[in-house]
Amino acid sequence: MDRRIYEPTPEQEARWATLRVPREMTDEDFRALWAKKHGGKTVGWGIMKRDWVLGNLKNHREYHVGVWQGRVDAARGLPYSEERNENTYNLGYYRGYTDFASDTKGWDEATRKAFYAKYVQEG
What we know:
The protein is an all-alpha fold. Helices cover 61% and strands 0% of the residues. The mean pLDDT is 92.
């Protein structure tokens, strides 16, 4: 099967345009915040930093484009591929590709039919 590129809907574009990435935090900021939450202890602040970074990747448009492109590729039975050097896109693509089967269970019937008609069915 050939590859199809996902085309965001106008509603998605509008929603993604409002995403805002919070200001960058330094390691010192993370240490101080961790110490404040853990009685002055600084051991373990790296876990909080990792969680913060992963959580904020969702605030990028490219993450959401990657999720949907991963879903399209999974639905079409194409092999997994990381084609970009952007971590935000690749994380989204990974999650969209690997979670596709469970994600579609939460879609209503009209959404599922429209997705398959546009991206999976040949013609």
